[in-house]
């Protein structure tokens, strides 16, 4: 990263959902010098994580690839290990897999996130499978048995990280001795590699919270916070500007057992009509969460993140022009 001071010490990556445009966006990220493309997993909201990673691997030459995050419990550990092996064959040395409990991917299925103890079990199982070991899964012995030509030889070197923002997940990451963590809040300084997920947009001269482009680009991040609050207590969203109207509209269109189907639609990517009204009602508060600001303000944020041990910023662009958002963030952080 071209620049000075703390910015030089930081790697800038991006987080993208599986989509028809993901290869185009990944190629642009590679041209701009992004370190890695992390790909979301949420089967009810996007197409398949591993197919998207394979598409990006085939469409790019050197940019890192990240499963960000692979959600525990969505598939058999052998299926995950085999998928990781397939991507590794396509792009040797480029894949990192971060596992998580699935706060959005499982909520939109009407399920709670998996227990951290189950997450830890799956991480250990997948690591052992990739190492070529015999693993007990559901009381039965499992081992990767692909012959030459049907899969890479074991051991398969794939760094396994953890999404670790809560105290139990942080403790699990330490217990697992993972080489890196993906976080959504300020970490401590104990991680060798620490990637911080951030949404937002670079403000252009004259723009503020009322600018339609800013609403479209920063709004999905704001809406995702409200969605998380609703999951904890639906009535609590009434304390947020526009939240009461948002909840009333949701409840008018879905019976209680189906409301989770609508809440997270567009997660960190696009605004539906209900969320657009919510974001507009936020006023100047829209610019507070995530990293939305001028280039100078964003570079200050980087300096603070470096001081807290962050080694990688994972930018989740949103809105109608992802290429422009990726370019603006790279320029703001002096990458181009």
Structure write-up:
39% of the residues lie in helices and 15% in strands. The chain has 336 residues and is an alpha/beta fold. It folds into two domains: 5-202 and 293-332, Alpha-Beta Barrel (TIM Barrel); 212-287. It has an eight-stranded parallel barrel, surrounded by seven helices. Strands 5-6 form a two-stranded antiparallel ribbon. α2 links the parallel β2 and β3. α6 packs across α9.
Describe the global form. globular
Helix and strand sequence: EHEHEHEHEEEHEEHHHHHEH
What's the total number of strands?
10
Percent strand equals 5-15%
Radius of gyration, Cα only, in angstroms?
A: 20 Å
Number of domains as seen in the coordinates: 2
Q: Please tally the helical runs, counting DSSP H or I stretches of 4 or more residues.
A: 11
CATH topology of the largest domain: TIM Barrel
Quickly give the structural class: alpha/beta
CATH architecture of the largest domain: Alpha-Beta Barrel
What's the N-to-C terminus distance?
8 Å
**Name of the CATH first level of the largest domain:** Alpha Beta
Q: Walk across the major sheet and give the strand order.
A: 1-2-3-4-7-8-9-10
Per CATH, the superfamily of the largest domain is Luciferase-like domain
For the report, how would you describe the main beta sheet? 8 strands, parallel, barrel
Low-confidence stretches: none
Oligomer: single chain
Helix content: 25-40%
